[in-house]
Amino acid sequence: MTLANLWFLIDVIFWVGFFILEGFDLGVGILHGFVAKDDLERRVCINTIGPVWDANEVWLIVAGAVIFAAFPAWYATMFSTFYLALVVLLLALMVRGVAFEYQRKVENPAWRSSFRWALTIGSALIPLLIGVALGDLLHGLPIDHAGNYTGSFWGLLTPFGLMSGITMVTLCVLMGSTYLALKTTGDLHARVQQLSGTVGWVAAVVVWGFVTWAHLGLGKGFVPNPLEVVAVMATFGAAWLASARSEGWAFGLSAIGVAATVGTFFAELFPKVMVSTTNAAYSLTVRGAASPSYTLKVMTVVAVVFFPVVLLYQAWTYLTFKARVTGGRVAPRGADPAVAEDQPAPAPLS
Question: What is the CATH number of the domain that holds 262?
Answer without folding.
Answer: 1.20.1630
